[in-house]
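[Automated response] Your request has been received and processed.

Submitted sequence:
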Amino acid sequence: MIQSTSEKEAYLKDLVVKLLQERNLSDFDMLDSLFEEIKQELQNQK
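Generated structure:
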C-alpha cells in the first residue's frame, strides 16, 4: 500500500481526476480511506 503522505496525496489527485473523467464512483471507499489516512497523518504532524 501507499506509505508516505505525499504519495497518498499524489494518488488521491490522480484518483479524483479519474473519477471525474469516468463519472465512476465505485472507488469511493478508496477515496474515503485515503482522505481519512491523510487527515490523520496531518493531525499527527502537528
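Summary generated for your ticket: The chain has two helices and no strands. The helical segments are 5-22, 28-45.
If you did not submit this request, please reply to this message.
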